[in-house]
Design a protein that fits this description.
The protein is α/β, with parallel strands linked by helices. It has 2 domains: 206 residues, YjeF N-terminal domain (Rossmann fold), CATH 3.40.50; 249 residues, 3-Layer(aba) Sandwich (UDP-N-acetylmuramoyl-L-alanine:D-glutamate ligase), CATH 3.40.1190. It has 15 helices and 18 strands. The strands form 2 sheets. Strands 7-1-9-18-17-16-15-14-13-10-11-12 form a 12-stranded mixed sheet, sandwiched between helices. The protein has a 6-stranded parallel sheet with strand order 3-2-4-5-6-8. Strand 10, helix 7 and strand 11 form a beta-alpha-beta unit. Helix 3 runs parallel beside helix 4 and helix 13 packs across helix 14. The two termini are 18 Å apart.
Length: 462
């Protein structure tokens, strides 16, 4: 896991105060990190266009131009007059070695966006928007300096934004780079040091980025065991039985010893799955909502969910009248954005549209979790947010291949399987989310062709 930060100005200030590293020194290291990336990875290319704004992000770009002046055919374009003192100093240094800023834009092999960085807090003027549109049309390899212009630290992507192939971010990872909308703009994200190790530069953060190495599949270490040693998951289903079957097969493929579908009899069912009309007495976790439908009787559902057994809720149950009665329980919920908006409204937390949620996913995840710290939230999306108490995690490993019916059912089934095996709610949520996204990423099919069956089969190879 890596730390994520809403802002890093305070971290820079710590460097100035505690480590006697000046703004100039940090800027030189930032630009040198970009220069090394370009020289090591793109040395086969020739021309370099660096587009700079008036603030410190632009000053980074000016510094980069000086560092690469004799290595590439550098064209330095100043979009607006440099305003900061450090920017004026860097421009003076660049002019002194013979760099002459250009007045016109032309395509180049490499294009560096150093316009705004994380400082943008409003829509750009027409001149800036037109500039970004032009840069995006160019065919060169596109690098964003710190953050793509048009993306702010809240993770909001404005109407016009730089579409980077890679974002080289300075000092520490910014949380805004991992919003759902940011995924369209950031490309590959690489963190660069500022002349000091991350361990010294960073401070503790309650927001974390999940790495692939954080996945810990439920491997079986004990030898003297039986199926009951690995838990029993009961999935409560209603009229849409297909969703619950997908969830059950997912759970069965991820370590749980027994899986029972609780509800009306399903005629055609995998022989490894069991059925019952009541909750088996040895149930160790419950999953409910996938395939529940709209007509499941409230009294019966209330009886089935009255236990203190670990539980994961998804899909249809968020629209059922019983959901408000369950909110006091410790459990996992796995809503997609539309469902989460409904939950926020039902619980009188916020009356918003899906678009507003997607622009402010971090804000509303924090609002929900601060209000209901006992609930583990998995807010599904391009970059899924997992939260519990005062801890927040982002899983950035999802992709468009998962945008297909059944993917969410798999996730709920994985959560249920791990709960049944004794995982805590938070650990189950983190591990289930990673397992789902990593399994999907390993499927060797065209991006449009992934099926739930592919993901489930991939679980066995994690």
């Amino acid at each position: 896991m890596q730390n994520l930060f809403y802002e890093v100005d305070s971290l820079d200030q710590k460097c100035y105060k505690n480590f006697h590293l000046s703004e100039d020194i940090l800027m030189e290291h930032a630009a040198n990190g970009i220069a090394l990336y370009i020289k090591e990875r793109l040395s086969h290319l020739n021309s370099l266009l660096i587009v700079c704004g008036s603030g410190n992000n632009g000053a980074d770009g000016i510094t980069l131009a000086r560092l690469l002046h004799k290595h590439f055919k550098v064209r330095l374009y100043l979009h607006k007059e440099t305003k900061t003192e450090i920017g004026k100093l860097q421009l003076q240094r660049a002019l002194a070695i013979g760099i002459e800023p250009v007045d016109e834009l032309h395509d180049a092999d490499i294009i560096v966006d150093a316009l705004f960085g994380s400082g943008l807090n409003r829509e750009m003027d027409q001149k800036s928007s037109t500039l970004l549109e032009q840069l995006n049309v160019y065919e060169g390899f596109k690098i964003a300096c710190d953050m793509p212009s048009g993306l702010n630290k809240e993770g909001h992507l404005f109407k016009h934004a730089f579409l980077a192939d890679v974002t080289l971010t300075m000092g520490a990872l910014k949380r805004g780079l991992f919003s759902d909308k940011a995924k369209e703009s950031v490309g590959k994200i690489i963190q660069l040091d500022l002349g000091i190790s991350r361990e010294l530069y960073e401070t503790p953060s309650n927001w974390k980025l999940l790495d692939i190495s954080d996945l810990k599949p439920p491997f079986r270490q004990k030898k003297n065991t039986h199926k009951g040693s690995f838990g029993h998951l009961s999935l409560i289903h209603g009229e849409k039985e297909g969703a619950s079957i997908i969830a059950a097969l997912s759970a069965s493929s991820y370590g749980v010893g027994l899986v029972t579908l609780v509800g009306e009899k399903i005629i055609s069912l995998d022989p490894a799955l069991m059925q019952d009309k009541t909750l088996p007495s040895n149930t160790t976790a419950i999953a409910c909502g996938m395939g529940l439908g709209k007509n499941f009787q409230r009294d019966r559902l209330s009886t089935l969910l009255s236990h203190t057994i670990p539980m994961v809720l998804d899909a249809d149950i968020f629209y059922h009248s019983i959901f408000s009665d369950l909110i006091h329980k410790e459990m996992i919920i796995t809503p997609h954005p539309k469902e989460f908006v409904h939950i926020l409204n039902t619980l009188n937390l916020a009356n918003i549209r899906v678009e507003e949620l997607q622009d402010n996913r971090f804000k509303y995840a924090e609002l929900f979790t601060n209000t209901f710290p006992h609930i583990t939230l998995i807010l599904k999306g391009a970059n899924t947010i997992i939260s519990h108490q005062n801890s927040f995690f982002i899983n950035p490993h999802g992709s468009a291949v998962l945008a297909k019916g059944g993917s969410g059912d798999i996730l709920a089934g994985l959560c249920g399987a791990l709960l049944a095996q004794g995982y805590s709610h938070l650990d189950a949520a983190i591990q289930a989310s990673l397992a789902q996204t990593i399994s999907a990423s390993k499927v060797e099919k065209n991006s449009y062709a992934l099926t739930p069956k592919d993901i489930i089969e991939g679980l066995s190879c994690l």
